[in-house]
Every structure is written in C-alpha cells, then in structure tokens.
Amino acid sequence: MRWLPLAYLVFVMVLEAVTPTDWAVSFLLIALPMVAAYALGPLGVAAVTLCALVLEGVVAGTPCCTGHNLHQLWETHHVAAYLDTGLVGLLGVALAAHRQRQERHLVRAHSVAEALMRTLLRPVPHEVGRVLAAGLYRSGEVGTMVGGDLYDIRATEAGERAIIGDVRGKGLKAVRTVAALLGSFREAVDDGGDLLAVAARMERRMAREADELRDNELFVTAALVEYAARSGRVTIVNHGHIEPVLISGGRVTALTGPPALPLGLGTLADEEPVAYTHPFTPGDVLLLCTDGLIEARDHNGVFYPLLDRLRHRFGDGAAPGPDEVIDFLNTDLPRHTRVFHDDVAILAIAPHGTDGPPSP
C-alpha cells in the first residue's frame, strides 16, 4: 500500500507520454492525494498533493516536455483541475488523519482483548503436578486472540485435572462465557469432589450464565480429564466434545466413551453423565483439541486429517513430548489451511514418569 501512490503516479506519467498531446491525461493526477490517503499520513498526503499540483502545471504548460504552450498553464480547465486537486488533497489529509486514529483505536482494542484472553487462557506451564504439558491457541478472528475456545490444567490433591471446551457463539459474549466457565472450573477442581462433581458444578454455572444472558441456546462442549499417577490411568468426562486422542507406542487412538450433552443442556438429558478411564503411562501423550482443528479445510474443502497426520508423524514408536506434538500441529495445520474460520485450542499432556512430589 505504501508503494501505491508512486505506482499510480508512474502509471499516469507513462500514459501521458504515450497518448496524443491533446488528451488531458494529467487530470488523472487529481485522484493522487486520495490514493495516497490509503497508505500515508496527513503530512505525506499533503506532500503528495503539492507534488500533484506541480506535475499538473508542468504537464499543462511545458513546450519542451509535453508539447503544450506556456499560456495553457492558466486556462480555465487547468485552473479547475488545480482547485480540484487541492480540494481532494484536503479531503485526503482528513481521511489519512481519521484512518490513523482508527488504526490506533483498533490497536488499543486488540491489545486489551488480547490481554483479556491471555488473562483467561493463562500460558500452559511446562510441568503441572506429575504431568508435562503444552498448549496452543489460534483465534478465528484475524490478528486477535479473542475467541470462544478454552483450556486449562491444574494440579490438585486428586490428581492433575484439565479441561478443553468450545463455547457456542463468538465475540465478547463468548469471552464472558469463557471467563465464567474457567472460573467455575478453577474453583471446583480444588473442592475435593470427583470429576463428575466438577462437571456438575460447571453445569450449574452454565445454567446461571444462560439465565443472566437470557440465552436459552447457550452451551459449551467440553471434555474434562483427570490423571491419577498412582493408578496410571486417566479419567474422562466428555460433554459433547471431540474425543481425546492418545498417542502411545506409535499408535494413535481416539478415546471414545459414554457421551453426554454439552454443558448448559444437562436438563434435557434423562441420564447422568458417565466417566470412563483408560491407561495413561509414561511415554504416552494425551491430546485435547477443539473442532477448529479437525474442521480446518484446505482449498479443496477437505478437513484436516488429525489422526492420519499424527500417525504419519509419530507412528515410529518413539515417545514424543507434549511440546513436540504441539509444535508439529502448529506447523502442519497452516500447511493444510491458509485461512482459519474458527478458533483452535489444543492441549497436550504426558506423565513425566517421576514419583516425586508434584510441582505446584
């Protein structure tokens, strides 16, 4: 964009050189200040306007360069062109100043929104309790972190507990729901109940959130996970979310289990949610993700083949770490799709294989 005014100027001058003398091509210079307003600041637009006025005079009345007579410099239609250029220049200066103010406002708004999301989605520590962890977040909103996906992991007396979720909807309303749900999770995991009790408390919080927002269709798909180092097993409660993926010994498996309705829709179910378990030992990696990952499309409309890509990369049997899995997805996913239409949240955890006390 910064080269656009120069490119336009070159275009007009080349056109002036190749067209007949009586063609008033120089009048195209009237638009030059407005073209500059898309890329330059007010002072830059003012300088371009002055340059356009000078060039219009040169083209209008320089016999040696353009074949025009000097007396044509002050003909009525040329004077009108000078006045028009000056007027357009003033409008261009105002537009450039307004554009710069809007840009500064957007930068501040994006910075505040990003700071808010970073406060809610805190950086995933490399080590949480007796597991290693890594996370990734990509917003569907270009250039911002604002979105409706969430994740968190906490070390508790019952074991390491994690959540991954996807709020229905977008924008600030979704961010508010993310804040409410994460706050409920962070309080509930330390209250001593099992994973189903945590899920039940979050279900009640979602019901209150729906009442406050007056949204009967508000819900969150979520998967809750608890790792117990003593038993070497992971417990999962899945509320309508994508199944966790286990990478173990070169095999990549989706850990399916009894489904449950998303959080916020629990009153519609006849049965209570059911937890299920699976072995989870050192060398394994459990991957939690939102549908923005598996629904990312390439230019042919093909979804991202998560399981196949993981098998291709980690099917040699070598035990990867959570960081390695996240780094792979962070580079492989953009190769599959250039445009993200939905938020992407990914959390990977793995037992670190020590029996010492858990880290805070």
TrEMBL record:
PPM-type phosphatase domain mapped to chain residues: 132-351
Protein origin, superkingdom: Bacteria
GO MF term (any one): phosphatase activity
Pfam families: SpoIIE
Keywords, sorted A to Z: Hydrolase, Membrane, Transmembrane, Transmembrane helix
UniProt keyword Cell membrane present: no
KW Aminoacyl-tRNA synthetase (keyword) present: no
Annotated InterPro entries: Bact_Sigma-Reg (IPR052016), PPM-type-like_dom_sf (IPR036457), PPM-type_phosphatase-like_dom (IPR001932)
Transmembrane segments: 6-30, 37-59, 79-98
Coiled-coil ranges per UniProt: none
Name of this protein: Serine/threonine protein phosphatase
Organism encoding this protein: Streptomyces lydicus
